[in-house]
Amino acid sequence: MPTSTPRGGHPSPTAVSAVGLRKSYGDKTVLDGIDLHIPAGTVFALLGPNGAGKTTAVKILSTLITADAGDLRVGGHDLTADPQAVRAAIGVTGQFSAVDGLITGEENMLLMADLHHLPKAEGRRVAAELLARFDLVDAAKRPASTYSGGMKRRLDLAMTLVGSPRIIFLDEPTTGLDPRSRHNMWQIIRGLVADGATVFLTTQYLEEADELADRIAVLHDGRIAAEGTADELKRLVPGGHIRLRFTDPAAYRSAAESLREVNRDDEALSLSIPSDGSQRELRSVLDWLDSTGIEADELTLHTPDLDDVFFALTAPTDTTDTTDPHQENAR
Q1: CA-to-CA distance for 63 and 83, rounded, in angstroms?
Q2: Out of 28, 161, 175, 257, which residue is the most buried by the measure of CB atoms under 10 Å away?
Q3: Distance, CA of 94 to CA of 74 (rounded, Å)
Q4: Residue-range definition of the domain harbouring residue 275
């Protein structure tokens, strides 16, 4: 696994660490002591319904607002003791673009290079490289206001990368994009990680987390309801099963009589065996079929998807907005 290297030169396998992170606005608790440990060179996805506190977590970890409590380290730096070092190590792209529509894409990039105090020649080189990388060369001289939503998101992310951040916070980066633009953004994110970056992603799109994330945490009522790989989370909720389908009624009856705890569909000649989706259970069914000589014409494995996990972990939905209205939805 790739590791991040803080400026002190000592490798750190953890890019982002939070222990006991708390944040309240008045009497509303947004983050109630959450713990996060994100290895360098991975994609971590924070899932949660609207108002769950995802953006608040990003704002705290990117030094935009302060936590009420918690031991927080980003890029090997203590968030409280050395916020400037944290800012030097990160890039942040929010739900709402920071692109200035009144100037061209190239001018947006050069403005960002100036903000990073890059020499003029280096700033132009970096801007040109990133515009090419994000397929924006042809549009570089046009006002950004003429860009499509997907182009603006690409430009926004390109601007974020001007400072070569090792850790990138993407707060719902594909909200409002059409499916093609969303998939293009996924490819860009995969490329960032392939280059050694760490990505902290918040999203409401479960497919997005499933496609991109090495680990996923579900945030609900200010706490982490569950965390793990997509496959681990899918095994947390019931509903997984192995389905055997037969064309021979005699084989179907033999299997139905031999197996316990199965759901029968006599019309379709199919049996559903409860399963957690593990390789062990699938092998057990295959071994049983071999030992009995019963032939199933079709075997399929059905596991709950992240939608099932999300709804199971976040129900019943609390319609009370527990976030500060000026913070949670602001860039």
Answers
A1: 6
A2: 161
A3: 18
A4: 241-303
